[in-house]
Amino acid sequence: MKSVNRRDFLKLSGTSLIGLTLGSVALRANAQEQLQADDPSAKALNYTAASTVDGAKCNNCMYIQGADGEQHRPCAIFPNKLVNANGWCSAWVKRPG
């Protein structure tokens, strides 16, 4: 097994961080269409554009992307789709913090 020296580790870490950042930007750029309730993935996860679960909305879910305050934002669960910030689905997980 080859050991990784400090310099190689830092290069790899920096490259990974840049890749993750650009990947997040790409996700936001590609997501242009709003998720519809009749979409097969939305149906499978019981997505609704207006949450009926107290304290649980897409806006406070760990999978939501984009800037706070935007009404429709990208979501890691629904690639290339925008979800309503006030929506909910069964994949909802409270955002840490």
From TrEMBL:
Q: Which residues form the signal peptide?
A: 1-31
Q: Which residues form the High potential iron-sulfur proteins family profile domain?
A: 29-97
Q: Which organism is it from?
A: Alteromonas stellipolaris
Name this protein carries in UniProt: High-potential iron sulfur protein 2
InterPro entries attached here? High_potential_FeS_prot, HIPIP_sf, TAT_signal, TAT_signal_bac_arc
Q: Name one GO biological process term.
A: aerobic electron transport chain
This protein's record includes keyword 4Fe-4S = yes
Alphabetized, the UniProt keywords read: 4Fe-4S, Electron transport, Iron, Iron-sulfur, Metal-binding, Signal, Transport
Annotated NCBIfam families: TAT_signal_seq
